[in-house]
Design brief:
The protein is α/β, with parallel strands linked by helices. It has helices at 19-35, 47-51, 60-63, 68-73, 75-92, 103-115, 128-131, 133-142, 151-158, 185-188, 210-230, 250-254, 263-269, 279-286, 299-308, 316-321, 336-348, 350-367, 372-386, and strands at 10-16, 39-44, 55-56, 96-100, 121-123, 145-148, 164-166, 200-205, 234-239, 258-260, 272-276, 291-295, 328-330.
Length: 389
């Protein structure tokens, strides 16, 4: 238990800009609350963080923007928010600033924290190894401690002089990832090319942001139409975050897709999936779902990303294993016909399903077991104790 030398509250500024980071940050806040009496959290995030007492200065809906061109169009909003957060750090001088992922904004805000003499413990590192090695030197100037979730990240950031701790991945702290489940991939591998595919569910995930759903919904609606016209008895589920408007999904609903609230339950029980690039692909891997990755963005963002991104895959499972076991359909390759062919393969090819199952077990082994959140909380408490809080 953290013991503050005074009865005053311990203020922590914490920021997360998308639904995944909101969930991980909320779990960290809960762990810190058990260790630090009278802790007060301020910053920005989503409903999960607000449930842990966050005094938020921005809405998650306004923050969850992807793509270089899309962010540029909202430059004025983010500049104003950065100035506001910078003033809060300077005026209130919290004990610590915890940026959670969200690199484009948080790197700039960390610089404000450094000027205000507020230490920075970054949780869930920005993926500079993929798209921004040039920023790593800048990051080293503004971060006191980096808490990373993937094994290869520890060396990457340490090589730039950043004190780095491997805490493990917080996804594994959610009990839903303890096992693959009763309807997991082991049982699903009974499918054969001649099998009756009745009572199997295909999971389609267009994304967790309004912008992503709008970009992907027509593509997945065309895929759903193809599934319904070429296979009998297949149900289609589409996870929908509660905060997003149901009307966004009208094309998919019109093709018979069912909207579901629990994305992880859908991934756990599905027979196959077509998953938007992002954290959900790692969730699908850990839950044993046979899946492929897809993504479409604006042409300016795509062309700029091609110049900046220096990894061979956008799927974390492939990066962790250093081989492209999960098939990817990005931009021009993401067509209804190609996605439909992949779904047929995922449902009916026993060897392919077994290959993906084996790979998912390898990923689980690489990431280790649960406890990432508690390890991160312990590092943060030690930082506060050394500063005399």
């Amino acid at each position: 238990m953290f013991e503050s030398p005074s009865s005053e509250s311990v203020k922590i500024f914490i920021t997360a800009g998308d639904p995944s980071a909101d969930a991980h940050a909320a779990r960290l806040m809960q762990a810190l609350r058990t260790r630090i009496p009278h802790v007060v959290f301020q910053g920005f995030g989503g409903p999960a963080m607000e449930m842990q007492g966050l005094q938020s200065v921005a809405r998650l809906e306004d923050l969850a923007v992807t793509g270089f061109a899309e962010v540029a169009r909202r430059y004025g909003y983010f500049r104003t928010l950065l100035e506001r957060c910078g003033r809060l750090l300077n005026e209130q001088r919290p004990a610590l600033f915890i940026p959670v992922d969200y690199p484009g904004f948080n790197i700039r805000l960390a610089a404000h924290a450094r000027k205000a003499n507020v230490p920075v413990a970054w949780y869930i590192a920005p993926q500079l190894w993929a798209w921004g090695k040039s920023r790593a030197k800048r990051l080293a100037e503004v971060v006191d401690r980096m808490l990373v979730v993937f094994p290869f990240e520890q060396k990457f950031f340490s090589d730039f002089g950043i004190r780095t701790e491997l805490v493990g991945h917080p996804l594994l702290d959610d009990p839903v990832f303890d096992t693959i489940g009763e309807h997991g991939l082991v049982q699903k591998t009974n499918a054969t090319n001649d099998a009756n595919l009745n009572s199997q569910t295909v999971v389609l995930m267009p994304g967790s942001r309004t912008q992503e759903v709008r970009r992907h919904v027509r593509l997945l609606a065309d895929l759903a139409r193809g599934i319904n016209s070429t296979m009998s008895g297949i149900s289609i589920e589409v996870p929908k975050p509660a905060r997003l408007d149901t009307s966004l999904y009208a094309p998919l609903v019109g093709e018979g897709a069912a909207l579901v609230e629990d994305s992880r339950l859908a991934l756990r029980n599905g027979a196959a999936g077509m998953i938007k690039a992002g954290t959900s692909t790692l969730e699908a891997a850990l839950l044993g779902l046979p899946f492929a990755t897809f993504y479409k963005t604006s042409m300016p963002s795509y062309l700029l990303a091609k110049k900046l991104v220096n990894v061979t895959s956008v799927t974390m499972m492939n990066l962790l294993l250093d081989r492209n076991v999960v098939h990817e359909y990005i931009q021009h390759d993401a067509t209804p016909a190609r996605l439909l062919g992949e779904v047929h393969e995922l449902l009916a090819n026993t060897e392919r399903r077994t290959e993906l199952f084996t790979a998912s077990q390898e990923v689980r082994s690489l990431l280790g077991g649960p406890g990432a959140t508690n390890r991160a909380a312990d590092v943060i408490v030690s930082m506060l104790e050394r500063r005399g809080y």
